[in-house]
Write a structure and sequence with these properties.
With 366 residues, the chain is α/β, with parallel strands linked by helices. It contains 15 helices and twelve strands. The strands form three sheets. A five-stranded parallel beta sheet has the order 4-3-5-6-7, sandwiched between helices. Strands 9-8-10-11-12 form a five-stranded parallel beta sheet, with helices on both faces. A two-stranded antiparallel ribbon has the order 1-2. Helix 14 links the parallel strand 11 and strand 12. Helix 2 packs antiparallel against helix 10, helix 5 packs parallel to helix 9 and helix 10 packs parallel to helix 15. 54% of the residues are buried. Bound molecules: fructose -6-phosphate (F6R). Fructose -6-phosphate binds next to helix 5 and helix 12. Keywords: Aminotransferase, Cytoplasm, Glutamine amidotransferase, Repeat, Transferase. It is an enzyme of class 2 (transferase). Its main location: cytoplasm. One of its GO terms (biological process) is amino sugar biosynthetic process.
């Protein structure tokens, strides 16, 4: 059942190239520039006329929502707000007629997300679901939706659900962008081509496994760990930290790299490992200077970089190379070594990887 892997989590990490392919199977025709998602097609006017998109989710799905915020704003030029379902539902949220709500949930059973959907519907919003489990409560409660088609995710720590959610949300953003004419045609085609190459590049990112395992053995006893990223990779920093916390029981925090100087930098000393997500992207020079700030305070740097990088390599204690892609798609690659890092550390600490203490696969309590 684990297909030769020691744990479901590792199996699911390795399934990602195929899971992502399954997410776009039958939905894209790259040479013709076609993206087709039935749920989006049926409601295209609603998306095109949206004054705002409100994304509601919890945990890792909320992190996918944050990545989608950057993507929707860039591709479709629609303002996006990303809300924890639990916070959204218990306040008195302002919902306007042209707001579109997107609910993201792997299980489709998360109680807070379900309740937030009901509230949004009561207030007249159109609610679109992004779920993995077919026929789940959330898929039934939403007006329309699209499945990620990641296949069953058994490990409690979410891995392939996250990357397939981002893939699906990227397809949605591309479709809506095209309908609105929000990005130049050439860029649209380039993103589609890049997206089609992602499974192959995820495969390459998985080949960092042994290097990541070595790094894991060096830091497995660290009591704390920081994760930093900027732009599209800020949510990846949050997700990397969540993975480490939940399966290794190491205290970890994700931060936007530029926020370091507003407080967290006080934590840095020679015992603090800092994972920096630093692919070659916009504001690369800024992240290089963030790394310098940490090095000058003796922090240990584990950097995720683009193949061929030299500047970060010269500064970092360890680098993990991933293939090059466009900024917007980079989270699909930078996430991979972070999943592996938390996995190996958890195994080395004898933690129950697939069933971490105090956690359940679907959180049906409020
Ligand atoms: C973390 C994790 C949780 C879930 C969260 C939402 O690895 O699995 O944070 O992401 O409980 O679950 P879904 O997506 O099923 O609504």
């Amino acid at each position: 059942e684990k297909g030769g892997f020691d744990h479901f989590m590792l199996k699911e990490i390795y399934e990602q190239p195929n899971a992502i392919k399954d997410t776009f199977r039958g939905r894209i025709r790259v040479s013709e520039g076609i993206v087709k998602l039935a749920g989006v097609e049926d409601n295209l006017q609603k998306f095109m006329n949206a004054d705002r998109i409100i994304i509601i989710a919890c945990g890792t799905s909320w992190h996918a929502g944050l990545v989608a915020e950057y993507i929707f704003e860039e591709f479709a030029r629609i303002p996006v707000e990303v809300e924890y379902a639990s916070e959204f539902r218990y306040r008195n949220p302002v919902i306007r007629p042209n707001d579109v709500v997107i609910a993201i949930s792997q299980s489709g059973e998360t109680a807070d997300t379900l309740a937030a959907i009901k509230l949004a519907k009561e207030r007249g919003a159109f609610v679109f679901g992004v779920c993995n489990v077919v026929g789940s409560s959330i898929s039934r409660e939403t007006h329309s939706g699209a499945y990620t088609h990641a296949g069953p995710e058994i490990g409690v720590a979410s891995t392939k659900a996250f990357t397939t959610q981002i893939t699906l949300l990227t397809l949605m953003a591309l479709r809506i962008s095209r309908a609105k004419g929000a990005m130049p045609r050439a860029d649209y085609f380039r993103y589609l081509q890049e997206l089609e190459m992602i499974p192959e590049k995820v495969e390459q990112a998985l080949q960092t496994n042994l290097e990541v395992q070595t790094i894991a053995s060096i830091y497995k006893d660290a009591p704390n760990c920081l994760y930093l990223g900027r732009g599209y990779n800020f949510p990846v920093a949050l997700e990397g930290a969540l993975k480490l916390k939940e399966i290794s029981y190491i205290h970890a925090e994700g931060y936007p790299a530029a926020e370091m100087k507003h407080g967290p930098i006080a934590l840095i000393d020679e015992r603090m490992p800092v994972v920096v997500i630093a692919p070659k992207q916009e504001h690369y020079d800024k992240i290089v200077s963030n790394i310098q700030e940490i090095k000058s305070r003796s922090g240990k740097i584990i950097a995720i970089v683009t193949k061929g990088d030299t500047q970060v390599k010269a500064l970092a204690d360890h680098v993990i190379e991933i293939p090059e892609t466009s900024d917007a798609l980079s989270p699909l690659l930078t996430t991979i070594p972070l999943q592996l890092l938390s996995y190996h550390i958890a195994v080395m600490r004898n933690c129950n990887v697939d069933q971490p203490r105090n956690l359940a696969k679907s959180v049906t309590v409020e």
